[in-house]
Amino acid sequence: MSLNILLGVQTTGNGHIVRSRALRAGLLERGHRVYTLFSGPSARQRWPLEEFAPYHVCHGLTFASEGGRIRYLRTAREARLLRFLRDVHELDWRGYDLVISDYEPITAYMAKRRGLHSLGMGHLYAFAHDVPKVRSNPLIHGLMNRFAPVTTPLGMHWHHFGQAILPPSVPDDVRACEPLRRDFCVVYLPFEHSEAVEQFLAACPGIDFHVYTHVDRERRSGNRLLRPIQRQAFVDDLAACRGVICNAGFSLVSEALHLGKRVLVKPLVGQIEQESNVLALQQLALGEVMHSLDAQVLRDWLDGTDIAAQNYPPVIAPVIDWIDAGEWDDPAALARSLWAADRGGTHQPAAAEG
């Protein structure tokens, strides 16, 4: 049965857009009709949104950061709650059979208000389950759980932790890569001051770093090759590098782990998703952490050992099969089947509990 689907995409970071692009394409191939709503920081400079047409862009909600730290007062000042409530109220809900939110709050709250069934896809929905979490202000945890509430959360994580959550949705362009190991590291630290990042990397002069940052053209600065943010070049470097240095977001770390690349993460201070991701990486022995741009931690990490490629199974196509089957209230069987899939000889965890 063909469905009319409203797809909400949070634009904080590229991971939501990359995942939603694959999901939308798969739904269209199955004959479903998809209308996309974006909210959050402007994504037009990072992605050609025209390929998502028909689509709409709203201000939405997001966090403000500076110098590697969440700025809560600035976040509150920039929230524009009245505009958010107006967008929820005015969003045309008629004719949709299903709402899918990639942690996008306008579509999620509209679906809740109108009684439409909603699915939540993405890493942050894993925090509705018993997964590693940092201790924090209960108010902050509550806000995270209520940011984009849905009927059925399809959370994703690097391990199931005995819960009905899915593996990461690694995009096809990364799956198509043949992993190599050349003597350079990929660096993507968009929440840090660029001058501090360059000083940090310059302390290891014998190592080559490919730094993805906001520059107009590629240029060399000592041991740093500064590169503009462009998806294909980034994926090519990801496949060939010896390791990845990044903030502790979910999508890039997932892509690196899938390919067997070592990761060194610096969590965004005060962002409990990233701080919780650090706990999970340490518990699973899949990555190293630095809480500041610490050159000694970088040197120790460079001397460390490689990890096995995690070879996460395809997720998007099975999710679409599950949507087509209409069993939207119970993701447990879907989670069990995905974690039991052949992962190319890597450690296979036990099936997730229902």
Explain what the structure shows.
The protein is an alpha/beta fold and 354 residues long. It has two domains: 4-170 and 313-339, Rossmann fold, CATH 3.40.50; 172-302, 3-Layer(aba) Sandwich (Rossmann fold), CATH 3.40.50.2000. Helix content is 34%, strand content 19%. The radius of gyration is 20 Å and the shape is globular. Residues 345-354 have low confidence and may be disordered.
Question: Which characteristics define this entry?
Answer:
Rossmann fold, 7-stranded mixed beta sheet, single chain, alpha/beta, 34% helix, 354 residues, globular, 6-stranded parallel beta sheet, 15 strands
Produce the secondary structure layout.
Elements: E1 4-10, H1 15-29, E2 33-39, E3 55-58, E4 65-66, E5 69-70, H2 72-77, H3 81-90, E6 98-102, H4 105-114, E7 118-122, H5 138-146, E8 152-155, H6 172-175, E9 184-188, H7 194-202, E10 208-213, E11 219-221, E12 224-228, H8 231-240, E13 243-247, H9 250-259, E14 262-266, H10 272-284, E15 288-289, H11 295-302, H12 316-325, H13 332-339
Parallel strand pairs: 1-2, 1-6, 2-3, 6-7, 7-8, 9-10, 9-13, 10-12, 13-14, 14-15
Antiparallel strand pairs: 4-5, 11-12
User: Uncertain regions: pLDDT < 50 for 5+ in a row?
Assistant: 345-354
Q: Mean pLDDT, rounded to whole units?
A: 88
Could you describe the largest sheet, including whether it forms a barrel?
7 strands, mixed
Globally, the shape reads: globular
> Could you state the order of secondary-structure elements as H and E?
EHEEEEHHEHEHEHEHEEEHEHEHEHHH
**Cα-to-Cα separation, first versus last residue:** 27 Å
Name the structural class. alpha/beta
